[in-house]
Automatic annotation (TrEMBL):
GO terms for biological process: translation. It comes from the Eukaryota. Pfam families: Ribosomal_L18p. GO terms for molecular function: 5S rRNA binding; structural constituent of ribosome. InterPro entries: Ribosomal_L18 (IPR057268), Ribosomal_uL18_bac/plant/anim (IPR005484). This is L18 ribosomal protein Heart Stopper. One of its GO terms (cellular component) is ribosome. Keywords: Ribonucleoprotein, Ribosomal protein. Belongs to the universal ribosomal protein uL18 family.
Amino acid sequence: MLKRVCSMPYMHGGEKTKICLNAITRHIHSGQPHSGPRSFFGVEDFLDDDNSRPYTYQKEKKSKNPNKHISFKQRTIAYMEPFTLDVFISKRFVSASLTHRVTSKQVAVAGTNSKDIKAELQSRSDIPACLAIGRILSQRAREADVYTASYTPRERDKFEGKIRAVVQSLIDNGIDVKIYLD
């Protein structure tokens, strides 16, 4: 609509009005944002270098080399200690597994929901069940030639009670477990 109005010459204004309106429509319809002078407190003053998001004061520096800040130990621990222990305890059952970090394959698994273990236990989630899971998991790990593992508890888990019983049972039955507590 504005282009149509601007393209028609005005009778009273003559050629000057037509040129001014054409200049205005050129900026509006070119697809380019037309910005006025930047204000002292305007949003433009607080934009990032790439102008994509508002500036934050806790901005991290972009690293040129993303692997630079990772230590040698962090880069090589998956190969030096390839097996991890994962223990899951719920109100109804207990399960534990040894997983190879690099290939993500489970080497040995034991849980109180399996048929052979269910028959032996009175309860599937108490301390004796945890000790039985540790004993069976250590037997299956030795069959797979795994003698060392590392264990890092989840954020919500505390290393006490049932989890400690599973890990202690593994250690007592010949699996060397390195425990990493934060």
